[in-house]
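Project outcomes to date are best conveyed with an example. Our students and postdoctoral researchers have been running inverse folding experiments weekly, and each run begins with a structure described purely in tokens. The record below, which covers 165 residues, was selected by the lab manager from last quarter's runs and is presented without edits.
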């Protein structure tokens, strides 16, 4: 060996081999973190859509006189709830708009006990089912079904009848 030439250490190049072994694990961990982030974000949007849909449906007022069967949903309230949910969700549910079947709504008239905190008032309940699409992150077309329910009290001072005058 010439004088002034740096000596090669016997362990040179091992860091490259270590990186080659660790890279797949790091990529898998990154994909999992991104997938969890997408699920958390979509869950928040689904909760927000359920809240907005319940509020939009409850703003239609007391429609129990229009339909004596409280199990049947009232068309105007359902249309408003569906429009609000679709506006919030956009195409987040598997890359398409929220389907009519994925929105469950019910108007509960005054006097029906819903549970703690809502005794004696009428309310509008909305449940949204949405499938979070995770196929961009894997080869298997993974998805996660997310569900959110929200109850909004019906405004007793809101009238759904037109005043002719």
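After processing, the design step wrote out the following sequence:
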């Amino acid at each position: 060996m010439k004088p002034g030439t740096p000596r090669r250490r016997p362990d040179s190049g091992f860091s490259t081999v270590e990186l080659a072994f660790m890279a797949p694990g790091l990529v898998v961990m990154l994909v999992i973190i991104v997938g969890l982030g997408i699920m958390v974000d979509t869950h928040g949007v689904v909760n927000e859509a359920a809240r907005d849909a319940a509020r939009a449906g409850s703003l239609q007022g007391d429609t129990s006189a229009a339909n004596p069967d409280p199990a049947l949903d009232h068309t105007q309230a359902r249309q408003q709830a569906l429009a609000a949910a679709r506006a919030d969700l956009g195409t987040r549910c598997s890359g398409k708009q929220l389907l009519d079947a994925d929105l469950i709504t019910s108007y509960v008239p005054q006097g029906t006990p819903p549970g703690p905190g809502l005794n004696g008032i009428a309310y509008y309940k909305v449940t949204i089912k949405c499938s979070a699409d995770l196929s961009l992150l894997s080869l298997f077309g993974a998805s996660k079904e997310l569900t959110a329910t929200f109850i909004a009290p019906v405004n007793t001072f809101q009238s759904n009848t037109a005043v002719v005058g």
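The mean pLDDT is 76. Strands lie at 103-108, 123-133, 143-153. The training component of this project remains on track.
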